[in-house]
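Whiteboard transcription, Tuesday session. T.W. wrote the structure tokens on the left side:
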């Protein structure tokens, strides 16, 4: 029977369109709990600094109905303080009682100031700048942990970011808890914690996006089978370099680790930057499930080569007065459109103004400002200034003096 099942999984892995995510997510298990007291801000800050894509929260409910972040159902292992407040079951203490306790002293004196955080305080501290991997821990339906969790997601505007980008993943060993969340909002991404096998794959694909197995039971084949069913695999809790390497070689989509720095080092350049890893994983899963199609739709345009020169109204000096020395001035403008890498505006030798066979003594002066451009321009204007000196004793013949000039707009870099 066992053999038949194993062969079935392998066959599925070979023929189905298995789709692993393009990223392997670094999940800071209880924060950087290898080097900081678990589930404290110190542990979360450290995990993020070490490259974790997610910080994990285990949820418990206080006697007055507040979601706090603590792994154990009792305070005894990781909390210190007055015995009446800081020992015993979490759900027999009020939040005020628990806040009198230290959540870091057990780990080291330097962490004595750390408190048990509420989930709300975690959201207040990090907002939408991080990704959260939240576990409903041993949930009692009477506590309504799931409703409280979704209310906080809404209060901190995390529901849509969770649905679309997996900014919040909800995990549980309790399929019933996950199914309660699924019944409230079927779009939320859920991860079942438990054995990775054909039965769990078949069950979880109905409501979840992945399975979080203990890493000891993970094989290349069962990862492939999960991928064939479009489910992610996030093993816990993978701490040694050798185990991390083995899980990566199986193609898991991420893993819980107390040492995010070790996983980050092995991922190297493949490590997801910032918030983008979960977003990528979410999109990859939608593609696998046929819920997202990426259709290339190129959009663009072209620019034809253009060198355009428009001159303004012809310049005129007006009337020259014989017997009076003067430099007459006139101007017009040039408008340039150029798509070239450079352009310059020049004028051919202007020569002298003529009146029939009569010619003025001094040449016409022409100055163009500006007369060069180092990149494309649209409707750039230049001033063209004309000067015409007339001497006091210069003979002037009655009539109209004129000259047609040739301006050239050119480029060396079309
Ligand atoms: O949630 C993944 C992993 O943390 C499950 O084990 O006992 O550490 O919550 P535990
Ligand atoms: Ca956990």
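and on the right, the sequence the group agreed on:
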């Amino acid at each position: 029977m066992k053999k038949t099942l194993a062969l079935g999984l392998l066959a599925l892995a070979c023929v189905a369109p298995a789709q692993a995510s393009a990223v392997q997510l670094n999940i800071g298990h209880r924060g950087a709990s290898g080097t900081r007291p678990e589930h404290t801000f110190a542990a979360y800050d450290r995990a993020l600094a070490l490259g974790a894509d997610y910080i994990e929260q285990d949820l418990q409910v206080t006697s007055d109905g507040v979601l706090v972040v603590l792994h154990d159902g009792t305070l005894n292992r990781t909390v210190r303080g007055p015995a009446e407040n800081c020992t015993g079951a979490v759900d027999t203490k009020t939040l005020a009682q628990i806040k009198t306790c230290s959540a870091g002293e057990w780990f080291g004196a330097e962490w004595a100031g750390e408190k048990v955080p509420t989930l709300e305080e975690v959201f207040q501290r990090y907002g939408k700048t991080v990704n959260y991997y939240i576990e409903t821990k041993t949930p009692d339906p009477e506590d309504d942990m799931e409703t409280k969790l979704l209310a906080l997601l809404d209060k901190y505007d995390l529901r849509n970011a969770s649905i679309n980008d997996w900014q919040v993943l909800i995990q549980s060993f309790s399929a019933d808890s996950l199914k309660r969340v699924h019944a409230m909002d079927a779009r939320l991404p859920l991860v079942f914690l438990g054995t990775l096998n054909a039965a769990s794959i078949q069950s979880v694909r109905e409501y979840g996006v992945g399975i979080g197995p203990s890493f000891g039971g993970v094989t290349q084949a069962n990862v492939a089978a999960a991928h064939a069913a479009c489910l992610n695999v996030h093993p816990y809790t993978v701490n040694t370099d050798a185990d991390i390497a083995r899980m990566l070689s199986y193609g898991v989509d991420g893993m819980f680790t107390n040492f995010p720095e070790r996983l980050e080092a092995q991922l190297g350049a493949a490590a997801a930057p910032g918030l983008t890893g979960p977003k990528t994983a979410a999109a990859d899963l939608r593609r696998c499930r046929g819920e997202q199609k990426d259709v290339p739709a190129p959009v663009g345009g072209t620019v034809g080569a253009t060198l355009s020169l428009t001159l303004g109204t012809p310049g005129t000096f007006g009337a020259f007065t014989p017997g009076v020395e003067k430099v007459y001035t006139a101007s017009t403008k040039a408008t340039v459109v150029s798509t070239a890498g450079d352009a310059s505006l020049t004028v051919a030798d202007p020569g002298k103004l003529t009146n029939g066979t009569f010619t003025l003594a001094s040449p016409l002066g022409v100055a163009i400002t500006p007369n060069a451009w180092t990149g494309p321009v649209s409707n750039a204007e230049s001033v063209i200034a004309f000067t015409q000196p007339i001497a006091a004793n210069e003979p002037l013949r009655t009539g109209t003096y004129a000259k047609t000039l040739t301006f050239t707009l050119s480029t060396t870099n079309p």
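Someone added at the bottom: The chain has two domains: 3-16+292-411, 25-281.
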